[in-house]
Amino acid sequence: MTVVASNYARKENDLYQTEPWATEALLRHFPVGVGSFIWEPAAGNHMIADVLRKHGASVFTSDIATYDRQNAQIDFLLSGELETGMFNALITNPPYGKGNRQAVRFAELALERCDGWVALLLTAKFDFGKTRQHLFRDNPRYAAKIALVDRIQWFPGDTSGTEDHAWYVWGPVPGNCCGSARMIYEGREVPA
């Protein structure tokens, strides 16, 4: 498939709501449940958080703004020291920004602030490039890439998205995955 520019205007604060199937695809390989306390720091309207809760996790939601659902108003990229030791995972679809620069910073801060599992939904080619080796090749916590073989629909209607996406997953500190991350393929449907 060819990646083409969307005909839609960019949404304020990069509010792109993740379809539930995309989070289910992550959880088929990295399940959560009772005892999981997860921070969703780019919660939007809680599409990811709702799926996590359905699986039994406790979820703290925050975002740069409040949309249709209440959450703590925290700018993840600008906030200084945050008390994050209570969370055993951070799972989100962060803002990407121009050239994915915000997404890079978001990933760096997520890994600094969460000693547990970190899963970020990003573009499928996000791991390419020598400027991101510290997040992937050289990072002992980098555990897996879950490539979504179906495209996420970000806008209403019958059209699919114009870009491929993947979950990038980092394991708990201290990490021992360096050079041995798993490559997984997932889609809307549960494999038979």
From TrEMBL:
Coiled-coil residues are none
The lineage's top-level taxon is: Bacteria
**Listed GO molecular functions?**
methyltransferase activity; nucleic acid binding
Return the InterPro entries for the record.
DNA_methylase_N6_adenine_CS (IPR002052), SAM-dependent_MTases_sf (IPR029063)
Q: Name the GO terms of the biological process aspect.
A: methylation
Provide the protein name.
Answer: SAM-dependent methyltransferase
Give the species this sequence originates from.
Chelatococcus reniformis
